[in-house]
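ok so for the tutorial part 2 we go from a plain amino acid sequence to predicted structure tokens. step 1 is just haveing the sequence, like this:
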Amino acid sequence: MRVLSGMRPTGKLHLGHYFGVIKNWVSLQDKHETLFFVADWHALTTAYKKTSELQENIKEVMLDWVALGLDPKKSILFIQSKVKEHAELFLLFSMITPKSWLEWNPTYKDMKYNLLKISDMEIQFRGGMRDLVKEFISKIPYKVEDFEALEELILDEVSESFVKAVFDGYLESEMLKELNVSKRDFYDTDTYGFLGYPVLQAVDILIYKANAVPVGEDQLPHIELTREIARRFNYLYGDTFPEPEALLTETPKLVGIDGRKMSKSYNNAIYFADSKNEVEQKVMRFFTDPQKLRKGDPGRPEICPVFMYHKLFTQDEKVLEIERDCRSGKLGCVECKRIMFEGLEKVLEPIREKRENLRKDMKHLEDIFDEGSEKARNIASKTLEEVREKMNLK
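step 2 — the prediction. this is what the tokens look like for a chain of 394 residues:
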């Protein structure tokens, strides 16, 4: 089975990336034919104005991937933009993909609105309009076949218009001040590339005729859209693409040092590039059970972020002892963190060492990805030749 997946280059990887994505990739490469790519074109869909760090971010991802166990002898590792065939197939798929498929993609508007922190405003507006929309539909002088579907369609259109009205100045300006988002911010995300990025994702998968894509549940709409595009192409021009299946993977949300989901944007992450001293300092700042203020207070391991790390990095028999001593108050938080750090560092140290050795010879690492990109291009070019022939472009 051919498996494919990719990742945007946003910089150094942290523990959340490993447990959410990379660990599963490493396992898959031992069982299947695997291709993994750095999605640098995808990075431009939301960060097209900020490209000064793009090349450095790509190198950081390359370092982390290989240090964490992605093996160029087992997988094809490549850079998306080095396989120009993606761009041509993106153009051709754009010709046959209905615009409504992209506008209805549930993650499109969610991603856009969440990016600008305006989703709460839209949700509040939808709630306030729902009863009015129900009343409006009930007075339509035609038979309504699917009341709920029509209701959601109208709410989608009206709420979208409402958000635009706020940014275009048709409603009170105080709302914009509360959002702290400018009209320019809103329309800067409203690009063709942002709307069409699911088509590029479909290209990434179908150009290699991948059978499966490891994803979390939030990415299922993208896989279904890819399947729709494959079906449409096959219907129009003849059987060409397999319909890829989603490999649903559990992606545990590893918390950061402040108890929130680990994220670069929250500045709460532990990176594989961090030094031992940096990791120790971060561990000692970890949030713990807020009711356990001092040693002797009984703790609640089930809600403590540090105990979550013990379950991942501390020996099983020691974890049971830590849980017992935390609940009784025998174990204080400072000592608990020190034990957790020791277990965590045993995992991080060899990865850090391998990463530094790779950095000493970046030319070799770049060669690995250049060779992988050439292998990927050989596969992609054959697919594109078939596509051109089916579409009478040759």
